Amino acid sequence: MEKLHFEYQNSTPVKKFAHVGVVASGDLEILVYPADGEKTTLDITTGSDGFEKVWQNVLDRFFARYPLNGKFIVHDFGATPGVVNLRLTQAMEALKDEK
Amino acid sequence: MGKITNIWPHDLLTFTNDDDLILEENPLPEWAKDSLSKAKIVVVRRGQFKNGLIPVGLRGYERNQRLAGYLKKSSIVKQYHPDYFIKHESWCDLPIERQKLIAFQALVKIAPLLTDYQWGISGSLAYEMATGVKMVKESPEHTSDLDLIMPDLPKMNVAEARKFLARLNQFCTHADVQVVYGENGFSLEEYALGRDQQILIKTATGPILSENPWQAIKER
């Protein structure tokens, strides 16, 4: 079990709560809240250790396209980068829907 | 074992020589060597089959001990489809103290509830039943999930899916149902939440989102 923390400076504020994904093998759940401060924070709990660089790459790419400023809590159960990216996109869509 | 014709994600495959397996890490981590010394078995991953190479994963006891690789189709000795363990009631062949674990007890109780369905089991329970290697966990921190694989599950609405899962989840362990069709699959739990308009579908070429997962798994 590993805990990872990432921070970004993003411009688009998250205004609501969103929850996507499931607790299941090869998947993950993402909870998104409005940011606590100025920074976008991600706290990731993962069962798969040693993938910090892979996370960094997926997150860099995602936030370059969608600069969401919020607080992200992620519970990962061995999701592939493709699943992570799709779940992030789904969270972004959910935030849009709720507006 | 008869001729190998069809190979699907979640199947367990045994082989004879370590060299038959091409892993994405070299040299191998210690846990992988240890795992291979106990049982030469891998699980089929979703992905493209090319040049007779099947995408597979090797596992160790810990959840972070997973390694992706490829197995040559010609080197398969035995294939266990997830329903093999149900048809053979393979849990009966385990030592009594292993049969008493919460996860195996739950499996025994779930089996009569699913007699009308096509289903199978993957994950740590399948691994242990195929190899006899202790893989199922039971500790205050973590009890193994039941990874149930259900091909061609008839379409349910969200309320029906909730009811269905509630029946399977009454035995002190988490039953994780994946509805599959060919290489594709989605989590029944995600569907039953009824929370999102779109559901994640895993396919051989990567995950997609769909509003109608029952239809989409058959189309891809």
UniProtKB/TrEMBL annotation, chain A:
It is found in: Cytoplasm. The modification O-(phosphoribosyl dephospho-coenzyme A)serine is found at residue 25. One of its GO terms (cellular component) is cytoplasm. Pfam families: ACP. Covalently binds the prosthetic group of malonate decarboxylase. The keyword Cytoplasm applies. The keyword Secreted does not apply. Keywords: Cytoplasm, Phosphoprotein. This is Malonate decarboxylase acyl carrier protein. It comes from Lactobacillus gallinarum DSM 10532 = JCM 2011.
From TrEMBL, chain B:
Residues 100-213 form the Phosphoribosyl-dephospho-CoA transferase MdcG C-terminal domain. It holds the Pfam family MdcG_N. Keywords: Transferase. InterPro entries: MdcG_C, MdcG_N. One of its GO terms (molecular function) is transferase activity. The keyword Transferase applies. The keyword Phosphoprotein does not apply. Residues 8-79 form the Phosphoribosyl-dephospho-CoA transferase MdcG N-terminal domain. It comes from the Bacteria. This is Phosphoribosyl-dephospho-CoA transferase. It comes from Lactobacillus gallinarum DSM 10532 = JCM 2011. The lineage of its organism: Bacteria, Bacillati, Bacillota, Bacilli, Lactobacillales.
